[in-house]
Amino acid sequence: MQLPLRHEDTKIDFVEGFAVHKELIFNNLSLVQLCALVPWWQKKIFSEKTHILSLKLYLVICLILLSLSLSGQIKGFNKVKWEREKLSPGLVWKSSHMLLEDSITQNINVLIVNLHKRKISILYNPKENIRTSKQASEANAIAAINAGFFNIKDGGSATYIKTAGRIVDADTAKKWPENRNMTGSVMIDAENHLSIRQGMPNSWYDAHPEFPDILVTGPLLLEGRKKSILPKTSLVIVRHPRTSIGVVGRHKIVLVTLDGRTADARGMTLLQLTDLMLSLRCRDAVNLDGGGSTTMWVNGKPFNGVINMPCDNKKFDHEGERAVSDILIIK
């Protein structure tokens, strides 16, 4: 559901007529909304002009806005041909293996989840890393993705995590210190509402039992359809396989994987992933653990349910799944 447009939020400056602030486009306002502002601009700026001049300016503005809007999107994304399958009530899978920007191969999988009909939760094993497919199958889930960052060698989450109201480590500040990339969190309340917010101190999560499932992750990509400022780290600027979660509406979320590190799937920077999540109409979105961990699983599908191409074996196939500490499951 698109937020209503308020003129005071549009950040428009006027210089000798008008100049459109580019942040307006990047905040993901639709072309229809932008053009709807033009009569307001006309009244504000051109009240002394003739009707014909105003009409011409209206058309010019719309063309400029269209150009800027298209430039703010991933080139070629509007040409993606999705294969779509309804897996169960409240759960749709769509996928595409395509050329992005006319030369870069991408393999994208998206699960669209209606939380009115499906339940989401975090599953965590603090002692042992286990493949997403095995964890999800043993939990009788119908779908799953890998979730947070973790210790590959010793197991356990590398960031704050709470599942079913339980925190494994009492001293969360010592166990999980701050990390410049971990700027977001996924929180699920007792009513199955999922929210994505800016990261808070661990003590804040400890003090809020109304969220039985919490995972600190990041970086935060979108908040209120506005792009977050991303740190200049290798996690952000280098192409990698990615896993992400986004909130589209109060009861609608998307789980996203895109494969990488092979000739058949290059992966994305987090700037590109942010554009992808905007294109999927996300209001809020956050990055999850990616790289060789990126896995999407659906019960009953071939290849043990793994529907993306995990790259931990450095091949473009379904066999390169990595053992992880925690996953997001759909029931």
Domains, number: 2
User: Could you tell me the mean pLDDT?
Assistant: 83
Output the number of helix runs: 9
Distance between the termini: 24 Å
Instruction: Give the low-pLDDT segments.
Output: 1-48, 65-72
Radius of gyration, in angstroms, nearest whole number: 22 Å
Q: What percent strand?
A: 25-35%
Spell the H/E element sequence. Answer: HHHHEEEEEHEEHEEHEEEHEEHEEEE
Give the overall form. Answer: globular
Q: Major sheet: order of its strands?
A: 1-2-3-14-13-15-11-12
Structural class: alpha+beta
Sheet having the most strands:
8 strands, antiparallel
> Helix fraction?
10-25%
Number of strands: 18
Entry keywords:
9 helices; alpha+beta; globular; disordered N terminus; 331 residues; single chain; 8-stranded antiparallel β-sheet; 2 domains
What does this structure look like?
The chain is of the alpha+beta class. It has 2 domains: about 5-70, no CATH class; about 75-330, no CATH class. The protein is built from 9 helices and 18 strands. An 8-stranded antiparallel sheet has the order 1-2-3-14-13-15-11-12, with helices on one face. It is globular. The model is unreliable at about 1-50 and about 65-70 (pLDDT under 50).
Summarize the helices and strands and which ones pair or pack.
Blueprint: H1 22-26, H2 31-36, H3 38-45, H4 51-71, E1 83-88, E2 91-100, E3 104-114, E4 120-124, E5 130-131, H5 132-138, E6 143-146, E7 161-162, H6 172-175, E8 184-188, E9 194-198, H7 202-206, E10 213-217, E11 220-223, E12 226-227, H8 234-237, E13 242-249, E14 252-258, H9 270-279, E15 284-287, E16 296-298, E17 323-324, E18 326-330
Antiparallel strand pairs: 1-2, 2-3, 3-14, 4-18, 5-17, 6-16, 6-18, 7-10, 8-9, 8-10, 11-12, 11-15, 13-14, 13-15
